[in-house]
Structure formats: C-alpha cells, structure tokens
Amino acid sequence: MIQEFPKEYQEPLTFQQAEETMLRWGRLYDLKPRNSLVDCMIAFQKHYDDCVVMYEEDDDVDVMMETWRYEINAYNTVFNYFQPLFAPQD
C-alpha cells in the first residue's frame, strides 16, 4: 500500500472501479493488450517509486499526488482488498 498518500487526495472507490483503473493504466503504461491485475499492480508500484524520486528532485510532490491520485487510490483499494489473503493465519 502507498502509505504516504495524503488524505486530501484519498477518494473511496469500489473494487470494480479500482480494478478497471489499474488494468487501464497497465494497458497504457506498457501497451500490452492483456495484463493481469497483479502485473499491473507490480508495474504501478515500480512506476510510483520512480515518480517519487523524479518529483522529489523537483520538490513537486503535490503535483505528483494530483497527477496520479486516481491511480494511487485504485492501487490502494486493490491492495486493501487482497491484503487479507496474505495475512498470517492465527
């Protein structure tokens, strides 16, 4: 999950909205017609990490959050949806 995402940019999404956003981003990002949701999540995390470095160098983190807010919200929604599957069993 992208932890440092400011509350003013957070918006609730349904899982379906988040999934569609991540899959659309995946198609645009690497131009593959078919990406799995997991592939898109992995690629977006890498893209996000690269953007953080780039925007921090220019001291424009707010611009980054505004630019990528929908994708970050989608990423976090999907991540939170699947997180229980990977939680330790008691």
Low-confidence stretches: none
Q: Which outline best applies?
A: globular
Q: Which class of secondary structure composition applies to the elements?
A: mainly alpha
Rg computed from alpha carbons, rounded to a whole number of angstroms: 14 Å
Q: How many helices? A: 3
* Residue-averaged pLDDT: 86
User: In which range does the helix fraction lie?
Assistant: 55-70%
| Terminal-residue CA separation | 22 Å
Number of strands: 0
Biggest sheet record: none
SSE string, helix = H, strand = E? HHH
How much of the sequence is in beta strands?
under 5%
Descriptive notes:
With 90 residues, the chain is an all-alpha fold. It is built from three helices and no strands. The longest helix has 22 residues, at 61-82. The mean pLDDT is 86.
Layout of secondary structure:
Blueprint: H1 15-30, H2 37-57, H3 61-82
Helix pairs in contact: 1-2, 1-3, 2-3
Keywords:
90 residues; mainly alpha; 3 helices
Compact summary:
Helices cover 66% and strands 0% of the residues. It is built from 3 helices and no strands.
